[in-house]
Structure formats: C-alpha cells, structure tokens
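Quick one:
INPUT:
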C-alpha cells in the first residue's frame, strides 16, 4: 500500500517541492538535494532505500549505484517530536512531478531526474538494454531503477539534458578559437588580425 505524504509543489519555472513529514515519516534522496528544512527534521546517511523498503541492498546497493554514476550514500530525512517540513528546489527550469510506484513495479529514470522518494522506494542502478539506446540516450547506459511501493518526485530538466539541448546554440567556430589558445592568446590573436 502506497502511503501518501502531504507534498506541495510551489512555483512554475523554478519549482520547489515542500514535503510535510509527520512524526516517524521519512523521505530519502540523493546526497546534496536539500534546500531547507525545519529544525525537528533529522538527517542521516544510508546506503539503502527507506527503512521499510527492504533496505535497498545496503552496501551492495550503494556500490551498484556508484557503478551507475550515482552516490554510495543516500540522505534520509525524518521528523521527530512533531510535524516537520523539508524542501527541495529545482536547480534548473522545468517541472517536478509526483509518481506513484506500486509493489513490484519499477521505473527507469535518468540518473539526475530522481529528486526524492518515500519510505519503501528502493533506488538502484539500471542499464539500457541496447547498445544504440545507450549511445544515443544522452547520458550513456546508466539509469536509476526505482522500485516500489512508494511515491517519488521526478525532475523534468536535469543538467545533462539542458546542456545537451543548449549545445547547438553555444558552440560556434569563432567562440571556439579563443578558448583553444586561451584567453590571452585569443586577445593577442584578435589584436594581430586588427579586430
């Protein structure tokens, strides 16, 4: 059974996810996603998923995530002594979307697309099945495999996807020349050419 938490997504272009945790409730995320929290929310490090989700493979699960380009440790946020609030803000323009994952169900997500999940969600490492899918997938063969039961929040515009989308507009031959020779070399080259 999926346990729904009170979660509010505020804003449009740069949304913020605010989750209200009741005493004993917890949310798990990759390291470094926190924006702010109330003082009664306790943070701890773990190598697995939520405490009720089978542990996520413990140390072996963490090592598998590292092979897939993720972090060995996950951060767990839990309210103590009363309701608490934890917030995660988008670092880039896009959307934050809630997704419910049923028991035995799994989702493959871009490794920077998973923001956080409830107790019971187990993040692991997943791989693209086909060679061509990995070559043209934008981030290689590695994905995050999220298994349930639980609720997750996903980001629509992780940094590698934004960088890939902007690349055609940023790469020009005139801009590349000064970078290749360094800033000073580019300035001297422009002076010598009379520009």
């Amino acid at each position: 059974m999926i346990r729904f938490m009170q979660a509010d997504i505020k804003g449009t272009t740069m949304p913020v996810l605010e989750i209200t945790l009741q005493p004993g409730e917890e949310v798990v995320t990759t390291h470094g996603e926190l924006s702010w929290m109330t003082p009664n929310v306790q943070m701890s490090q773990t190598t697995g998923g939520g405490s009720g989700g089978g542990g996520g493979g413990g140390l072996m699960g963490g090592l598998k995530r590292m092979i897939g380009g993720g972090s060995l440790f996950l951060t767990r946020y839990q309210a103590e002594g009363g309701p608490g609030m934890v917030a995660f803000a988008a670092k880039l323009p896009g959307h934050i979307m809630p997704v419910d994952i049923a028991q035995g169900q799994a989702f493959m997500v871009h490794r920077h697309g998973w923001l956080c999940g409830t107790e019971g969600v187990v993040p692991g490492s997943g791989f693209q099945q086909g060679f061509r899918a990995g070559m043209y997938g934008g981030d290689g063969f590695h994905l995050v495999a999220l298994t349930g039961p639980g609720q997750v929040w996903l980001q629509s515009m992780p940094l590698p996807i934004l960088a890939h989308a902007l690349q055609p507009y940023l790469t020009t031959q005139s801009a590349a020349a000064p970078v290749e020779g360094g800033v000073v070399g580019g300035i001297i080259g422009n002076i010598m050419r009379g520009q």
